[in-house]
């Protein structure tokens, strides 16, 4: 008696979605035209300026400037990382991550730590400490406050976005 062989093929929606999403690289050109996008680019440019102004001096002799360097470099790297995530729309491919909460925590912590670093930077700048590096440290202090205000703006926009998501 002949046997009948039945082969059943199924495909999971996970693999179909994975292959569809990984095959195309999305690019959000309009993100840089938004106020949060412009603030993020400003944070990157001026944050780079803050830590290069300090890095060009003998900052390692003064612990206060070491702290400012840490905050400036740490948040510069993370801001570049988040800019890439937003520009490539990676957040749409990883829906398990609460991106509005992550953005709010990131921008809020950047605002607070940059504010502390800017205050430490400004209070540490004296001609008596090192007159050779005075101008670089003074300029880094000014730009640290400007970057702080940019992170404050992005914290506000992140809060608005987070609040609208939690109310839905």
UniProtKB/TrEMBL annotation:
Residues crossing the lipid bilayer are 35-54, 60-85, 97-117, 137-159
Instruction: Please list the residue ranges annotated as the MARVEL domain.
Output: 31-163
Compartment(s) of residence: Membrane
Q: Which Pfam families match?
A: MARVEL (PF01284)
Biological process terms in GO annotation: myelination
Alphabetical keyword list: Membrane, Transmembrane, Transmembrane helix
Membrane-topology annotation of the record:
Multi-pass membrane protein
UniProt name for this protein:
CKLF8 protein
- What organism is the protein native to? Circaetus pectoralis (black-chested snake-eagle)
Gene designation per UniProt: Cmtm8
């Amino acid at each position: 008696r002949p046997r009948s062989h039945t082969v059943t093929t199924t495909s999971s929606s996970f693999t179909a979605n994975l292959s569809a999403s990984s095959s195309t690289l999305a690019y959000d050109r309009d993100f840089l035209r938004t106020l949060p996008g412009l603030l993020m680019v400003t944070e990157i440019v001026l944050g780079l300026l803050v830590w290069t102004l300090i890095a060009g001096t003998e900052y390692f002799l003064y612990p206060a400037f070491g702290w400012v360097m840490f905050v400036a470099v740490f948040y510069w790297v993370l801001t570049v990382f988040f800019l890439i995530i937003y520009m490539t729309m990676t957040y749409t491919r990883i829906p398990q991550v609460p991106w509005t909460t992550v953005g709010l925590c990131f921008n809020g912590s950047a605002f607070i730590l940059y504010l502390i670093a800017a205050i430490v930077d400004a209070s540490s700048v004296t001609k008596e400490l090192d007159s050779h590096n005075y101008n670089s440290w003074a300029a880094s202090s000014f730009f640290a406050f400007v970057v702080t205000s940019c992170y404050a703006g992005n914290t506000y926009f992140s809060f608005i976005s987070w609040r609208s998501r939690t109310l839905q």
